[in-house]
Amino acid sequence: MQLEKAYDVRYGENPHQKGAFYVDRDARPGSLARAESVGAGGKELSFNNLVDVDAALECVRELERPGAVVVKHTNPCGVAVGDTLAQALAQAYLAAREADALSAFGGIVALNREVDLATAELLAETFLEAVIAPGFAQGALEKLRKKSALRLLSLGTLEAPDAPMLTYKRVSGGLVVQDRDASAKGEVAQGRVVTQRRPTDEELRGLELAWRVCKHVKSNAIVFAKGDVTVGVGAGQMSRVVAVELAAQKAGAAAKGAVMASDAFFPFPDGVEAAAKAGITAVAQPGGSKKDEDVIAACDRAGLAMIFTGVRHFRH
């Protein structure tokens, strides 16, 4: 590992911890290490900012249409894609922000298109720590630079670096190393319908978004989506049914008619039963539990459609 120190951060995750940002000498365009700071204040990213920006960036890469991701403490709290050509990015950001407006305050935003003035005006309405995007139109840059504490990062390209990538975690006395988790694109479409009812086209649209986002939520992870926007996220729970209940609480009335993605299988039927009670109509999950038949039967009783993707996306 050949790393060079970029700069010290004010402190680590907490004020009593020192911290610094080191970059890979071979980092390529499209990586956080090669992003250009274009904000007015030149305020450096903190340790937590860097981790959150990277999480937002990885999630927004999953989106193909103009899209926005709002991240808080490494978890997406709102994700949306735009469905019109005119002001599609602004439409996506507004939907993502309003998906969980309370959590969006002080968050990190990643966008997958150049930021235009309409989007910049919406971004300026809320206190944000940082915005990362492929670029910023001149009018948008002028608007956002008026917020001197807002960090603006221009990637130049959203294409992921094509070099083979590994991920690392430091543990006592060493490192655990693994291959990068592959993209979640297409896994729902290629999945297997296991219930009596097949998902509708509208449900499949929501499932595709929920599944792609779920990969980027800390396990146990549950994501509710409706059409082109997430409406509830249950993150980092020790019990999967509690993650469902948390997503339902976040979604409120918006859960009715929404769909659900789970990053791993349901060990018992209680998770899909809680989802049905909240108003969920379709589910995407990997499958592979000893209780799969019981879970499928619970979905059939409730009239839910369910797809097994055959792929798990734990995020620890």
How would you describe the overall organization of this protein?
- With about 325 residues, the chain is an alpha/beta fold.
- The chain folds into 2 domains: about 5-155, 3-Layer(aba) Sandwich (Cytidine Deaminase, domain 2), CATH 3.40.140.20; about 190-310, 3-Layer(aba) Sandwich (Cytidine Deaminase, domain 2), CATH 3.40.140.
- About 30% of the residues lie in helices and about 25% in strands.
- The protein starts with a strand and ends in an 8-residue tail after the last strand.
- It has a 6-stranded mixed β-sheet.
- The longest helix is centred in the N-terminal third of the chain and has 14 residues, at about 45-60.
- About 45% of the residues are buried.
- It has helices at about 45-60, 90-100, 100-105, 115-125, 140-145, 200-215, 240-250, 270-280, 290-300; strands at about 5-10, 20-25, 35, 65-70, 75-80, 105-110, 130-135, 150-155, 165-170, 175-180, 190-195, 220-225, 230-235, 260, 280-285, 305-310.
